């Protein structure tokens, strides 16, 4: 149920800029606490009044240029200025286009692709990038109009303090009938897809999440996620403004440098709600020391959303075992499923309930069938996994291996939405007990892709074969099944590794690879054409010195082959070992398997190879 604290009388605020204006009309209340270095040493606090005042500086600058209804790329670093610019764009009635700042080769390529695709009138960036405009514009095709740049820092806000939108002061709301935001998918630079989100989509997503969470008057949030895409933007910043509770933020880089900072912020600020992808729980478990652990108190947590990538039960178990003694209660953990094309949220575990998993026959699953193990077999599989975990010294990413697969439930479908599981080839509902493509319908589903009518029709307006009903569905490209009213995700349709008629899920193989040796970090699994059909290739990253890998090369390679063969019944045709950072990742931390495959085939994927004589290491 939507709750707007303190609201009384019409007109009821219905969009995020209107809700922000309403909150700023009430007595001052903390909205955001920003930790610039990931600690409280230089913390900055803003009330809703502060946010509106800063947002209006941005809005006034846009309105002077008559940019209502136009596109504005938001390329600021994570922080309070970013949030002010976002709501300033909304209050000016323009369309926000979140993007990473164009720093670094990979980020610049993505940034150029976004600008070329959406043709913005303005780019809002940090003042430190002012001397790089020529470098950026040199990357743009001559046919693309050069946007105006608006540079923002503390001085900009001080010098323009008191600026107001022309339509009535700090709490007036601009027109919101056009697109609110273009959300670019995080994985592609060569063919970017801008997802068109309306103000109705943004509010619907907040309401769906709040229906899951319930109302709590003492709610406090915390996030380190990048605010450039769905989970870090719609799942934290917008949700906090909609719900009216304070949010503690830190830059993503400071979490990556020292994951302890996330859980220390939870402790210090008595955070009740937070969010992170599966890998965040992994690295907290493996990197936080015993001394750091002793300083933590996670007993305040009531909701911890875990999504963005397949959720591993082994990861959740390891996190629970490590942090349970410090107050962490696993019932607070909410495995969830969503995607940018549905604004964010599709399904999630109910707050306060137990995390649910099912044990399935792995061979049947590889053939697209869902066969639940008997209670006796499931108990044996769990005991075998526990023994394997112990042997691996608690590696949180150990493969589930063997003849059983354990799948974590992503909970009940969001209120007001429908999910069906479809045979992707036949476009008919999958038979009971079969894995199929997940299709979604409901108010969270976006309007489509910017200027891509054919792809929009194929993805956002799918109909069941032979159906004359008006209802259309979003094709997610994800595979899964429904069981007892809950959604279980098994993998991505396009990422399936099909060998000898078996459907192998790359994330399962990647867990086996990472768990095979203590010095392996990232992993990517995919297939390539071979002489007798598709062959499996695994790529992994070695975290150690060149001399260490030179000494251990054969052992590392053999450990990977043994783990994959034992766990999945297929031997890799090649094990490609690269340095840390070799595997391309999305901005949200997911493996870009297609990009990894292309780089491997082209011979451009970085590789560590021992030389023939005394095994010195070379990188190519």
What is the secondary structure topology, with strand pairs?
Layout: H1 16-24, E1 30-34, E2 44-47, H2 48-64, E3 71-75, H3 80-91, E4 95-98, H4 105-118, E5 122-126, H5 133-139, E6 148-152, H6 154-159, E7 179-184, E8 194-198, H7 199-213, E9 221-223, H8 230-243, E10 247-249, H9 252-257, H10 260-268, E11 273-277, H11 278-287, H12 290-293, E12 303-307, H13 313-323, E13 333-338, E14 345-348, E15 357-361, H14 362-366, H15 375-391, E16 404-408, E17 412-413, E18 418-423, E19 428-429, E20 436-441, E21 448-449, H16 453-460, E22 474-483, E23 486-492, E24 497-499, E25 502-504, H17 506-515, E26 520-530, E27 533-542, H18 546-568, E28 574-579, H19 593-602, E29 608-610, E30 617-619
Parallel strand pairs: 1-10, 3-4, 3-5, 5-6, 9-10, 9-11, 11-12, 12-13, 27-28
Antiparallel strand pairs: 1-2, 7-8, 8-21, 13-14, 14-17, 15-16, 18-19, 18-20, 20-22, 22-23, 24-25, 26-27, 29-30
Helix pairs in contact: 1-2, 2-3, 7-8, 11-13, 17-18
Summarize, please:
By secondary structure, the chain is of the alpha/beta class. It has a domain at 497-619: 2-Layer Sandwich (GMP Synthetase, Chain A, domain 3).
Question: Can you walk through the features of this model?
Answer:
Residues 6-10, 166-173, 390-401 and 612-620 have low confidence and may be disordered. 49% of the residues are buried. The strands form eight sheets. The chain has a nine-stranded mixed β-sheet, sandwiched between helices. The protein has a five-stranded antiparallel β-sheet with strand order 19-18-20-22-23. The radius of gyration is 24 Å and the shape is globular. The protein has a domain at 497-619: 2-Layer Sandwich (GMP Synthetase, Chain A, domain 3), CATH 3.30.300.30. The chain is 33% helix and 24% strand. By secondary structure, it is α/β, with parallel strands linked by helices. Helix 17 crosses helix 18. The protein contains 19 helices and 30 strands.
């Amino acid at each position: 149920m939507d709750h707007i604290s303190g609201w009384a009388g019409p007109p009821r605020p219905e969009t995020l800029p209107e809700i922000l204006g309403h909150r700023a009309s009430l007595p001052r209340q903390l909205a955001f606490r920003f930790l610039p270095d990931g600690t409280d040493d230089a913390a900055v606090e803003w009330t809703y009044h502060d946010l509106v005042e800063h947002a209006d500086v941005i809005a006034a600058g846009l309105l002077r240029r008559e940019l209502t209804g136009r596109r504005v790329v938001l390329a600021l670093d994570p922080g309070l200025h970013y949030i002010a610019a976002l709501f300033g764009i909304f209050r000016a009635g323009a369309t926000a286009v979140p993007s990473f700042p164009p720093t670094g080769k990979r980020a610049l390529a993505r940034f150029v692709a976004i600008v070329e695709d959406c043709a913005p009138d303005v780019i809002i960036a940090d003042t430190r990038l002012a001397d790089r405009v020529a470098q950026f514009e040199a990357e743009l095709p001559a046919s693309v109009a050069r946007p105006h740049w608006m540079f923002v820092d503390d001085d900009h806000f001080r010098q323009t303090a008191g600026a107001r939108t022309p339509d009535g002061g700090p709490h007036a709301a601009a027109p919101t009938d056009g697109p609110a935001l273009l959300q670019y998918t995080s994985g592609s630079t060569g063919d970017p897809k801008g997802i068109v989100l309306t103000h109705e989509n943004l509010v619907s997503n907040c309401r769906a999440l709040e229906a899951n969470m319930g109302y709590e008057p003492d709610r406090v949030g915390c996030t380190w996620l990048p605010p450039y895409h769905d989970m870090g933007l719609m799942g934290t910043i917008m949700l906090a403004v909609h719900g009216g509770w304070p949010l503690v933020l830190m830059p993503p880089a400071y979490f990556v440098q020292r994951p302890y900072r996330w859980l220390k912020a939870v402790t210090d600020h008595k955070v009740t709600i937070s969010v992170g992808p599966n890998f965040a729980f992994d690295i907290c478990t493996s990197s936080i020391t015993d001394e750091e652990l002793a300083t933590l108190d996670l007993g305040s947590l009531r909701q911890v959303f875990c999504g963005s990538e397949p959720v591993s039960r082994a990861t959740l178990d390891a996190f629970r075992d490590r942090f349970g003694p410090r107050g962490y209660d696993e019932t607070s953990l909410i495995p969830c499923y969503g995607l940018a094309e549905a604004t964010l949220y599709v399904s999630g575990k109910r707050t306060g309930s137990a995390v649910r998993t099912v044990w399935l026959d792995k061979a049947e699953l590889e053939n697209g069938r869902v066969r639940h193990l008997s209670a006796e077999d499931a108990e044996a599989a769990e005991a075998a996994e526990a023994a394997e975990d112990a042997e691996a010294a608690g590696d949180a990413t150990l493969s589930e291996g063997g003849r059983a697969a354990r799948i974590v439930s992503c909970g009940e479908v969001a209120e007001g939405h429908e999910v069906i599981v479809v045979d992707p080839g036949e476009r008919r509902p999958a038979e009971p007990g079969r894995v199929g493509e997940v299709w979604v319908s409901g108010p969270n589903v976006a309007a489509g892709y910017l200027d891509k009518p054919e792809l929009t029709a194929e993805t956002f307006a799918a109909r069941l074969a032979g159906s004359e009903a008006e209802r259309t569905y979003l094709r997610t490209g994800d595979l899964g099944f429904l069981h007892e009213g809950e959604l279980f995700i098994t993998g991505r349709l396009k990422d399936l590794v099909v060998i000898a008629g078996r459907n192998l899920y790359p994330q399962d193989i990647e867990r086996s690879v990472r768990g095979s040796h203590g010095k392996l970090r990232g992993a990517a699994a995919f297939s390539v054409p071979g002489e007798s059909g598709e062959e499996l290739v695994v790529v992994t990253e070695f975290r150690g010195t060149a001399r260490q890998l030179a000494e251990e090369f054969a052992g590392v390679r053999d450990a990977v082959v043994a783990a994959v063969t034992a766990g999945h019944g297929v031997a890799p045709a090649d094990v490609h070992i690269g340095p840390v950072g070799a595997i391309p990742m999305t901005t949200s931390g997911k493996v870009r398997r297609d990009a990894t495959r292309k780089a491997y085939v082209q011979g451009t994927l970085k590789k560590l190879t021992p030389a023939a004589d005394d095994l010195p290491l070379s990188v190519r």
